[in-house]
Amino acid sequence: MLKTCVIQFILILGLSSYALAVAPEYSIVDKGVIIQGVDGTNPIIYDNDWWDDVFDNNYLWAQVHLGKADLRGNIVTRDMWDHPKYIYSMKKCVDNAHKALREAKDSGLKINQPITPGSDRVLTCPASGKIEDTKSYPTPGSRLIVQQAKKASSNKPLVIIAGGPLTTIANALLTNPEIADRIIVFALSIHSYAYNGKDGWSGYIVAKKTRMVEWATGSFWDKNSVFAPKHFENLPDNPFCKDMKCLINTELGQLNQLGDGAPLVWLYNTKCWNGAKIRKAVWNKKKVDFIEDKEGDILDIPKANTDLDESRKEFFRVISDTNLFNN
């Protein structure tokens, strides 16, 4: 039975450079969320701050190696925690990504996309409160987004999976607002100054200027809800898999679970998500709040509408593929 919940998302050609975005159109088909024009065949950019506290890059790079993901770039955006002191250096974040990529290659995975540095400082809300007055700080990462977005289209947009702050994406939209209808951003923990929302103004820019999906607004994974150490026991003992085995045996791994990867498994198995809500982005001093509103800007996938069993099955369908380390 088809249950369709149509939400307008068309960004009409010819709108001004700073036209507002609206939430992506979605439907529920066979108990799974379908977002128009988005699936595992879209071009993808992966943008994260830390690469050793989640399993996301393992799944994505496995898909790349198997020829199932069209990855256009790996971007590192600085962890903006506790700015302006910036507890974590940009170098540390970049080194962390290089380590993860080296482990993948040392295990035989063919990943040709290099690590590209993104934004290393938060964006500041201008005195006018207008997005178009924001001072931008272009980086190799934001330029990569612009380059790849121009190759995409509104009907088949560039998918950006963001596991950290949205600063690099916001900079790309500021310097080249014409790409807004050619990208769709998947993020989490942006709402109300959550971990990835420490650059609240960037989150607000992205929510207002392009299509955006936030997973589990206001919540996060429950401990051991998707993965447990036993699930990883039969994986090979190469650097790529040893990293995952080590992580799941830590408190951090058991808390972070699928981490920032809910949209990644959904791209290849729509049953991982079975419901959604529309929310409106509201600027609130130093943070962006996502308030439930049928006329809103973003699509929210509640944790309650995330099928944990399907998510785990999809993850291990790929990670356990017999062709992964044999070619």
Keywords:
9 helices; 327 residues; disordered N terminus; 9-stranded mixed beta sheet; 12 strands; alpha/beta; single chain
Task: Describe this structure as you would to a colleague.
The structure is a single chain. The protein is an alpha/beta fold and 327 residues long. It is built from nine helices and twelve strands. It has helices at 56-65, 90-106, 140-151, 167-175, 200-209, 239-248, 251-256, 262-268, 308-319; strands at 2-3, 26-29, 32-35, 43-48, 70-76, 115-117, 158-162, 183-188, 211-215, 277-284, 287-292, 298-301. The strands form two sheets. Strands 6-5-4-7-8-9-12-10-11 form a nine-stranded mixed β-sheet, sandwiched between helices. A three-stranded antiparallel β-sheet has the order 1-2-3, with no helix packed on it. Helix 3 (140-151) crosses helix 4 (167-175) and helix 4 (167-175) crosses helix 5. The longest helix has 17 residues, at 90-106. It is globular, with a radius of gyration of 18 Å. The chain starts with a strand and ends in an 8-residue tail after the last helix. The model is unreliable at 1-18 (pLDDT under 50).
List the helices and strands and how they pair.
Elements: E1 2-3, E2 26-29, E3 32-35, E4 43-48, H1 56-65, E5 70-76, H2 90-106, E6 115-117, H3 140-151, E7 158-162, H4 167-175, E8 183-188, H5 200-209, E9 211-215, H6 239-248, H7 251-256, H8 262-268, E10 277-284, E11 287-292, E12 298-301, H9 308-319
Helix pairs in contact: 3-4, 4-5
